[in-house]
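## retry 2 of 3
previous attempt timed out at serialization; input unchanged, resubmitting
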Amino acid sequence: MNDLELFLFELGLGGIFLTSILFVIFGQVTVRRLRKNPSVKDKLGVEFMSGYDIFNVASSLSSPKWLRDKLSHSPLSFLAADYETLYEHTSRFDRILGRAFWFLCITSTSILMFLVILNAFGLLD
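## retry succeeded, writing output
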């Protein structure tokens, strides 16, 4: 491994570590409160596995308006969390925490996937 590969690998793993901490904090602080609210409980999107609604809420709070509008008119819109309802029931801190978690998760995962793809093509030998 050369220095750039090692740096990217360490950056990705460090990001995943921070993401896991933010996942727990965001789930306990924000999503737990939203699950207890009867008017919001059914608007958190489909939960394929335990904790997946945390990703649904974070992605909904982090997505741009044009994407939210496009996805809300899709036949699969029931899978995602409802942004308007979430926006009404979250504070500015909740939204910032969700965006920080989501973008760190996406960035770290993308870096590691990029390294895996480069390795699969033999460019890291």
